[in-house]
Amino acid sequence: MLVRNVRAVALALALLTCAGTLTGCQSQFPGLHLTIATGSSDGVYNALGTQLATSWANQLNIARPKVLETAGSPANIDQLRNGTADIGFADVDAAAVSNPNQGPRKLRALARIYDDYIQVVVRADLPIKHLVDLAGRRVSIGPANSQVQLVANRILAVGGVHGEVLSALSLNDAIAAMEAGTLDAFFWSGGMPTLSIASLNDAVPVRLLDLGTDPSGVLQAMVDRFPVYRTAVVPTGTYGPGSAAVTTLVVANCLLVTDQMSNDVAQALVQGLFNATGELILANPAARAIDVHTAIFTDPVTLHPGAVAYYRSTKS
User: Fold this and answer.
1) Stretch 162-186: mean pLDDT, rounded?
2) Would you state the pLDDT for residue 316?
3) Hey, where are the domains in the chain?
4) Fold match between 33-114+252-313 and 116-251?
5) What is the Cα–Cα distance from 134 to 161, expressed in whole angstroms?
6) Burial bucket for residue 30 (CB in 10 Å: 0-12, 13-18, 19+)
7) CATH, domain range 33-114+252-313
8) What mean pLDDT do residues 234-259 have?
9) pTM for the full predicted model
């Protein structure tokens, strides 16, 4: 009789434990397999996507989503369009170029995540003060099919810069080339701070160009021509105690899916995103900007109906 009672109590406790979890012992989404398109291995997208894969797997009791390293936003949008990824990080300037409401798979947003800062990183020991000083220098504008290259080309064109020696390097390769002394400057678009750039500063002193004081007037011209961009200040000390505050462009990035995703899965993913904010902040400080009140501002990409349902449920 004692053994029977012990077994009954153990079974009851197991059932209570199971009922207390977010999704129960049986997954709400049996057989769900997801792929997340992120970015370069040293970028913020990859850090957050890797953590999200773990968090979603634990919360929803599903197979851990596959995390893809990519060239960035345009590549991620391509992956979403052709069905090789279910979720992707992307900046809204790249999304606007892609016509989000056209095609057999229309882009939809789960959330606005944070702002990417456009960073023009130069060697601190070179006399590069303004964009025009890049002429004749060895400059990386980011890999092909990347949002970095999209915005770099726009800045160089609007700023009237000519004669630079361009290369299309990933962030990792640009940092390696800077350390090797074969690169003078590179463009990057990412969360603040980008940890690999902070680490580079320990090996090769670098600084950011201040686009707000550039004689070409590139900052205001970019905002006027491309409304997806805004201006912001990179605070003093972001890349070391001696780094100065600079003004630059920022662009919002979002977590995107397509209209092929079901409403219940989309809603669960958004809920999981906000439940995991503490873990995401540990993965990268840029996640501190994730906020339910600003997450709905995803223009020019429409929110997924499942995401809308989640945000409506959070209103008091």
Assistant:
1) 92
2) 55
3) 33-114+252-313, 116-251
4) yes
5) 7
6) exposed
7) 3.40.190.10
8) 93
9) 0.85
